[in-house]
Input
Amino acid sequence: QVQLVESGGDLVQPGGSLRLSCAASGFTFSRVAMSWYRQAPGKERELVATITSSGGSTNYADSVKGRFTISRDNAKNAVYLQMDSLKAEDTAVYYCNARAPFSSWGQGTQVTVSS
Output
């Protein structure tokens, strides 16, 4: 079955950086476009970034463009999110999933940006 395990979240000061990781299993990872999503308290889950199956193309929400970078390693079945210049409004639980999401979601990883 599909398993997605996110890690790397932490408490960080505004302007800081974090790198999130996602380990995927249970499907042919190299054939699937992957995304990072986030859900802030009291808000709906939103799409943050997407990377194609080959890693050759990426797309970002306007709110993170120029600050976040999505990447993947198909040999390791892993997808990453490098987050720089973090802002308080980036505080959320971050999830990885396919661009067309599987019904099964991981537990997410908490990112808190606060001084």
Summary: The first strand starts at residue 3 and ends at 7. The two ends are 40 Å apart (CA to CA). The chain has a mean pLDDT of 97.
